[in-house]
Give the backbone structure.
Amino acid sequence: MPVAGVYDIENKRISDIELSDAVFGAPVNEAVIYDVIRMQMAARRSGTACTKGRSDVSGGGKKPWRQKGTGRARSGHSRSPIWRGGGTVFGPLPRSYAFKLPKKVRRLALISALSMKFQEERMIILKDFPMAEIKTKKFREVVERFGLAKALFVINEPQPNLEKSSRNMKDVKMVRSEGINVYDLLKYDYVVLLEPSIKNIEGALLS
């Protein structure tokens, strides 16, 4: 089993913890990571692009000119797609780009992302992160003490003071263990796990 150090907010190693080999020591499957990120990005697309077809454009109820005898090409409608101001042919309409992948694929991608962070030594485990009050300055000091440029913090339960203290920091995101996802794990350079959240993650991925 992989072993990781547990630190306090003063960046002192206070103990060690054994991690599940099936979650943090698994082979990295880049293909499923790509598929799951593509799924997450597709679900975020607004899909609001909308164009008007010839039946949606106002005007043009009368035939512009008679069928024969004018020397011009025949035309039956002034809102034809080939006319200026006419409708659009096969234009985009509001739609959902979301699609789903099997649960096993999503789980494997999350395990691969966690294992990759651990193997790259970009995972930090904190014993806890006490915050008696909402104080961004104190939170920033801890982040700088660990040298974290872009970091994803994973907590095990609601901690209002901690969550609000991190809210104004541009390159820091705070999520709860049940909300951890592949996109965030790859977007941020480091992932910081509070020790109690590890059991939640392992329990969810191994159940």
Strands lie at 3-7, 13-18, 123-126, 151-155, 172-176, 190-194. The chain is about 35% helix and 15% strand.
